[in-house]
Amino acid sequence: MPRITVGQENGQDVVLHFDDHGSGRPVVLIHGYPLDGRSFEKQERLLLQNGFRVITYDRRGFGWSSQPSTGYDYDTFAADLKVLLDALDLSDIVLAGFSMGTGEVTRYLGRYGSDRVRKAVLMGAVPPFLLKTGDNPEGVDGSVFEGIKQAVLADRPAYFTTFFDNFFNVDTYRGTRISDEACQAAFVTALAMSPLAAHDCVDAWLTDFREDVARIDVPTLLIHGDADRILPYSATAARLPALMKDLTVVTVEGGPHNVAWTHPEVVNPALLDFVRD
């Protein structure tokens, strides 16, 4: 099982699990909350079949990676990503994130630059800034996120059941684009993540990425469902074209948050066309 050390806690290594498959130009896929690197199965197979090298990894606290008590913030997540990219000595990368993973992509490029990266992909974007403030009236009220944290503390499994109903828009797509079994698999994956991370990552979602977004200097693909109930389109994707220099936007009509699973017939051709150039 390939792992890389990114830090320590109480004398024990904090390690990330990763998978490195195929050959060719590398595409690094960064998963969302509360899933893991295997959540890109509908995209990884396509990329491998088309001659790309695909690297996925589990963020600290998720999947088969370590579950420390600290480090659930985007400065640390981006630093962990840098350790992985440096250790594998990757270059000419397409750096692609889904949901929470879009924060790693954005903070990495904002902080470390694009020397290793030729393109970026944001699917179900967290940036530019989710929290409603005086200078960010388009954001979401902070009470929403406090409610999420309280729900996680009160009954984490029950919270995840409700979360996935909205993650996939189950009331709309159950039995057509999302099966009960796929929801159950996502639920089991979520329960395996660190309970501390399940709570503490909520604060990370409120990171202000506006300066990072302005520093992105590589072509970027944005894919976002216009029926996203987790990261509402109006508070996220709709704002990015005015903030980014070279952005291609694919809006998935009726798409929920996880369009990579529910709408691969839209997502996969757009992704493949973008990474091929």
Automatic annotation (TrEMBL):
Gene Ontology molecular function, alphabetical: chloride peroxidase activity
EC number(s) per entry: 1.11.1.10
Pfam families attached to this UniProt entry: Abhydrolase_1 (PF00561)
Enzyme class: oxidoreductase
InterPro entries noted in UniProt: AB_hydrolase, AB_hydrolase_1, AB_hydrolase_fold, Epox_hydrolase-like
Coiled coil: none
Keywords: Oxidoreductase, Peroxidase
Domain AB hydrolase-1 span(s) in chain numbering: 26-264
PANTHER family recorded: HYDROLASE, ALPHA/BETA FOLD FAMILY PROTEIN (PTHR43433), NON-HEME CHLOROPEROXIDASE-RELATED (PTHR43433:SF4)
Family: Belongs to the AB hydrolase superfamily. Bacterial non-heme haloperoxidase / perhydrolase family.
Protein's recorded name: Non-heme chloroperoxidase
Species, as recorded: Petropleomorpha daqingensis
